[in-house]
Design goal:
The protein is an alpha/beta fold and 232 residues long. The chain contains eight helices and seven strands, in the order H-E-E-H-E-H-H-E-H-E-H-E-E-H-H. It has a seven-stranded mixed β-sheet with strand order 1-7-6-2-5-3-4. The protein is globular, with a radius of gyration of 17 Å.
């Protein structure tokens, strides 16, 4: 009975992902900078989404292949701010993807540990490591510079195989600014992609993987990529 419920839930999630994809591909145009290293969708374990500007970034599902969406429906794990999950419309949408959508607080508390424990060998992890959205000012809600938070390094330290994709968003303020109405249609969504073998990326830094110095080096690298590789 439990297996049947899981299969049914996965099919429902896949149906919603397909609906989002075809809605997005119908009403938006995509400009995607594909990586030189081919993305092997069957081996993707981690997607790092940089340049978080809107809660409607699920519109980027419009360019993903169906077979990868099917895998996401079964294996996706993503941290979501409890504040976001409590929103009336967007929160309801994200809750449809439970148990893969794991609620966390903005503190380094037990909720983050619970998220890390929810990651399995076949999980596909999605994370927006800035942890908050950029406002029209170019800063976060508190007027601070957008930076990559260390949680993504905790995830990366525990992965040893598969592929990592870094997705650089061109930003969605032209589609929807946080707390300012519904998204606008018929806009162009830009994104650049990079693909890395996880073990090779981790070994790019001549430091012991998992050490504090290694973690700081990875954070510096991701911060540099955030500031230099997003589409114009």
């Amino acid at each position: 009975m439990g297996l049947l419920l899981n299969v049914t839930q996965n099919l429902i999630i896949y149906f919603f992902l397909l609906c989002i994809k075809y809605f997005s591909s119908l009403f938006y145009r995509f400009e995607i900078g594909w990586p030189q290293n081919k993305i092997k969708w069957g081996k993707v374990r981690l997607i790092i989404f940089l340049h978080h500007t809107s809660l409607y970034e699920f519109l980027y599902l419009g360019f993903l292949p169906n077979h990868f969406l099917r895998k996401l429906s079964k294996r996706m794990v993503a941290p979501a701010a409890d504040k976001t999950l409590n929103r009336p419309l967007v929160g309801f949408f994200f809750k449809l993807f439970s148990p893969g959508m794991i609620p966390i607080t903005r503190k380094r508390d037990d909720s983050w540990g619970n998220f890390l424990e929810s990651i399995y060998d076949d999980s596909i992890i999605l994370i927006a490591p800035e942890g908050r959205m950029k406002r029209k000012t170019g800063l976060d809600l508190d007027g601070k510079k957008m930076t990559v938070k260390p949680g993504v390094v905790d995830i990366l330290a525990g992965l040893n195989k598969g592929q990592m994709v870094i997705a650089y968003s061109g930003g969605l303020h032209h589609v929807q600014v946080p707390n300012e109405g519904l998204p606008k249609l018929f806009k162009t969504l830009k994104m650049n992609l990079e693909a890395f073998d996880i073990s090779e990326y981790k070994n790019m830094f001549s430091l012991p993987a998992g050490s504090d110095t290694w973690k700081n080096a990875v954070l510096d690298d991701l911060q540099s990529r955030l500031e230099t590789k997003i589409p114009v």
